[in-house]
Design brief:
Helix content: 40-55%
Number of strands: 5
Number of helices: 7
Radius of gyration: 16 Å
Mean pLDDT: 93
Largest sheet: 5 strands, parallel
Strand order of the largest sheet: 1-2-3-4-5
CATH architecture: Alpha-Beta Barrel
CATH class: Alpha Beta
Distance between the termini: 39 Å
Length: 180
């Protein structure tokens, strides 16, 4: 955590707006890490002025043929909600999470993964994204919800990435007008 903090402080000194750490182990090894994960993450983020986010991984879409909601994921989110992070980035679309999951985020901003990154998944429609986000707003409110992808898009073609991000951008604009 201390070594990572040095790296994060160097980024922070450059004036970075957002620093996000990917945290797969709290999901995959929750019972082994719950005793010290919050302290370690807070040490990594100590002294950082930039906005801080944590991404809770489910595993790469290409390596996991079928992601399903697991009972450990809510516990992982609840644990990470105790950190000094400002936001929690969730894999939400592909595992077909439901809005009640978001109750575990405490007072953190939720970066909702609205893009399924399975290579076989179709490009989401703007309306599908709006519907998913609107259901999430019912739990966390519009001021604590941001849209994102489930995870990294490196398995997808450039055209598919562009189409997915375009749909997400259009949905975000509609949501801003709706909840302004």
């Amino acid at each position: 955590a201390d070594a990572l903090n040095q790296e994060l402080r160097a980024l922070d000194a450059l004036g970075i707006d957002l620093i996000q750490l990917d945290e797969p182990e709290v999901h995959f090894r929750h019972s082994q890490l719950e005793g010290f994960a919050v302290e370690a993450i807070d040490r990594a983020f100590a002294g950082i002025k930039a906005r801080k986010a944590l991404h809770v991984c489910y595993g790469y879409s290409k390596n996991i043929a079928e992601k399903r909601a697991t009972p450990v994921y809510p516990a992982a989110i609840k644990l990470l909600s105790q950190t000094t992070a400002d936001a929690i980035s969730l894999e939400y679309a592909q595992p077909q999470q439901t809005p009640d999951l978001l109750e575990n985020a405490g007072d953190k901003t939720v970066i909702l993964g609205v893009l399924n990154l399975d290579t076989e998944a179709p490009v989401e429609t703007v309306q599908q994204i709006v519907d998913m986000a609107s259901a999430a707003v019912e739990v966390v409110g519009p001021d604590r919800l941001e849209l994102g992808s489930d995870c990294g898009m490196w398995f997808l073609s450039r055209d598919v990435c562009f189409d997915k991000i375009s749909a997400m951008s259009q949905a975000a604009e509609l949501l801003r007008r709706t909840y302004a």
